[in-house]
Amino acid sequence: MAEHVLRLVDRSRPRLGPRPLPTTVWSPVIPPAAAASGRLARGLFPLVVFAPGFAQCSYNYGSLLHTWASAGYVVAGIDFPRSNCHYYVNENDLVNQPADMAYVIGRVLAASRGAHGFLAGLVNPARVAGAGQSDGGDTVAALVANTCCRDRAVTAAIVLAGAEWPPMGGSYFTKTTPPILFVQGDADDINLPADSITMYQADTTGPRFYLDLFGAGHLPPYEGQGPPEPVVARVTVDFLNRYLAGSPGAAAAMRRDGHVAGVATLVSGSRMPP
């Protein structure tokens, strides 16, 4: 797995001033023969762009993001300018984060279209997922399901302990959404289970899944090494394999990996979590 940092700055919104968006990119290692043959021009790998929670940086989720990259995805983890682990002054800046994600997606895809650089030819532009946790989950929910912020480049989404964020404006789940996997600890007292259930119930236009983590709190299932974290890693990879990579057997793998006695259960469609 290769790791690079993009020093991105979005200057397209003058009202906000320059927005530094350092983005760590993890990607599968390309065999030299494949690179020399020109196969990269077709775009080999799907892209997953990740939004951390408030006062968090992408490296806090390193184990999970490395798992995605090791499974064959280019993973881009954003550190937001006003809510990262080094500088967090105003959670209300969350309203600007969907546009931050859209900007990073656009820049990564543009770099992949180029002839030079580590991203050249690396990303399949038709296979892009957004993923995020806590406030990052709120960001992704707006990016794929709110009329304020919908980015059509995103074709699948993973919302980890997220919620609808009313200050975004717009309307949630009134238009067609891409496939979404909601993941929620049922002992989370920061973003409550009711927040995820509300979104899951409202999402009636696209494939929807709800991974219920028994007794899990807010951060450990995504940043820790306890019993729920491997389940989250496996099910999220299965979801990406199904809806980004189109892998045979991914649907069955989701059903199998999402049910672990005493740890987690997975429901979909009209079924509700216990």
Structural commentary:
- It is a single chain.
- With 274 residues, this protein is α/β, with parallel strands linked by helices.
- It has helices at 32-37, 62-70, 97-113, 135-145, 193-202, 220-223, 228-243, 250-257; strands spanning 2-10, 19-27, 45-51, 74-78, 123-133, 156-160, 180-185, 208-213, 264-268.
- The protein has a nine-stranded mixed beta sheet with strand order 1-2-4-3-5-6-7-8-9, sandwiched between helices.
- Helix 5 links the parallel strand 7 and strand 8.
Brief overview, please?
The chain is built from 8 helices and 9 strands. The chain is of the alpha/beta class and 274 residues long.
Q: Biggest sheet: strands, sense, closure?
A: 9 strands, mixed
Total domains: 1
Roughly what is the average pLDDT, rounded to an integer? 93
How many strand segments?
Answer: 9
CATH topology: Rossmann fold
| Coarse shape | globular
Question: Which architecture name does CATH use?
Answer: 3-Layer(aba) Sandwich
Instruction: Please give the radius of gyration in angstroms.
Output: 18 Å
Q: Strand order of the main beta sheet, please?
A: 1-2-4-3-5-6-7-8-9
Query: What is the CATH first-level class name?
Result: Alpha Beta
- The portion of residues assigned to helices is 25-40%
Number of helices: 8
Main structural class = alpha/beta
N-to-C span: 38 Å
Strand and helix order:
EEHEHEHEHEEHEHHHE
- How much of the sequence lies in strands comes to 15-25%
Poorly predicted ranges: 36-42
Corresponding CATH superfamily: Alpha/Beta hydrolase fold, catalytic domain
